[in-house]
Every structure is written in C-alpha cells, then in structure tokens.
Amino acid sequence: MVSKSDKPKTGRKDNLEKSERSANKKLVGEKRTWERKEKVIKTGMCEESVSAQPKKRDSKGNSKGGRDAKKPFKKGSKSKEPEAPIQTRRQKQKISDLTKTLRLNYNQLLMKKKEKGPEVKELKHSLVGKSIEAIGDKWIELCYKHDGSRILQSLLKFGNRVHRATIVNALKDNFVELATSKYAHYLASKMYYYAPENEQKAHLRAQMTGQMSKLVQHAFAAETLEFVYCRCTETEQRELVLSFYGNYFLLMKETVDD
User: Fold this and answer.
1) 255 φ, ψ to 5°?
2) 191 C-beta neighbours (distance < 10 Å), count
3) What does the pLDDT look like over 20-52, one tens digit per residue?
4) CATH number of the domain within which 235 lies
C-alpha cells in the first residue's frame, strides 16, 4: 500500500497552467464565432452552411444547387471577345495581282508531266509568253525579290529563243547591279547561260571588264564572274584577266593588235 506521504503533491504551478489553457480555448472559440457572424453579415450565408446543403437533382440526375451548379446566362453580362488568329509574316505581306498570276504560272511550269512531246513544250511556251506580257516594263521590280528572281529564271529556262532574247535585252544594262544583289546574282548567271545571241554575251562581258577588281572582292558578284569565266573561250578569258589589271593593259593590247 502506498501511503499518503508517498503521493506526488500538485503545486500551484499546475493549477495556473490548466487555467491558462482553458482561457486560451475560450478566446479561440470567441474569435471563430465572431468570424462566422461577419461572414453571415457580408454574404448572407456561412460557408459551412453552404457545404451542408444537400444538392437538388432533376429526374435525369443533373444537380441544381450547390457549388457545381451552372449559373444562368445573362444578356447584359460581359463576355470575352474571341481572340484574332495569329498571322504569319507571309500572310501580313501585301501581294499584288501581278505576283499572284506569276506565281500560278511558275507552279505550272515546274509541274512534271508524264506526257512528253511538242504539246507540253507549246503549253509551257504559252505560259512564258503570257507572263512576259503581264510583266510589261516591271522587270527591275521583280529582279531584286526572292520570288521574282526565281520566276524570271524559270522563264529563261522554259522559254523559246525569242522569249530569252526579250528578257536579256530588258535586263542587260543592269547586269553588274544584278550580279551584286543577294537574290539577283543567280539571275545574272542564268542570263549569260541562256542568252541566245553572241552579241548579248559580249555586251554582258563588256560591262564586267570595267569593274573587275570590284567584282572579284564582292561576295555575290564573285560567283557570277566565275560562272562567266568558266563558259568563255580562251581569248575571252584572256580579255577578262587583262581587265583585272586595269585599263592600261587593255590599251596596250589594242595597240599590239593594230
């Protein structure tokens, strides 16, 4: 048996701790009640009461009440306007009617058909003739564009002798400017390749001889110069090399020939 003297004695500290705990609990409870009253005043209904309400259902099983219920649509309500589709850089460009027609003809020229013969050639020649008539005097506007230079290259490739002569005659005076352009230097090399007459090729070489030192150092013109040099005869190559050293050597050559 344990005597009364052996039992642990509870002091005043334990009683004070118990009283403090009970007081804190009362304060917490009072705070919660005040918060609930404020919610009722603001919203008209407490959150706990909303969650406690049973959801009404139709005969089909669709819920009417509660948080998941759909709100009715009001005519005066503000709705977000549908966002416009994002346009690419190609769609933002303003394309003229001339470029549209030339692109259609360009696509038809590049189509590979199984049937081969004079009928296919005549069809392509007619497309080239129509595109040349549509261009008129707007050759230089198309040369410096990436799509325009490709279209003119295809016209030189698929056109007949007369078509090629007209295209070269329209652009032969601007040969050096085309050779120094980013997109048009491809057209310049094709002009020399498809030029039907030797006089036209001589005119194109004469424009290059006066500016040989400048063209050799240029990034785009050097490719056209190499293309022309590889397709010249020995005498024509010699003239190009002499023009690289300057006009003095060309004068010496003329005096020696005389």
Assistant:
1) -70, -40
2) 26
3) 777 666 666 676 676 766 665 666 554 555 444
4) 1.25.10.10
